[in-house]
Specification:
Helices cover 49% and strands 3% of the residues. A hairpin with a 6-residue loop joins strand 1 and strand 2.
Length: 119
Amino acid sequence: MPRESYAALQAKLEREISKLQKKKDALQNRRRKPVIDSIVKSMREYEITPEEIAAAFSSKARPRRSPRKTAGATAARKPVAPKYRHPDTGETWSGRGKPPRWLAAAEEQGASRESFLIK
């Protein structure tokens, strides 16, 4: 059995790739057609012109923001300076979030939070 040349193998693979690409395109067109028909039907029902769609599409072409993020959340966060310090251990707390155990324990024993303020 003679060996196929590199050029022959390459041509054979390119034909197969072309055939698969055509199948992929046909499948995509079959799936898109009902969607396009539905859009056209809705446009006719609500009397929407293609120009209105183009204008709306171009105004929405800007990058989308995540619904969770706000304008301030996109900037890099800087560490917050400590606001409270334990006098014996030197542990610190910024005053944000849940208080550390050492501060909660001291407050249970009657100490005020202000007594741990860094001056």
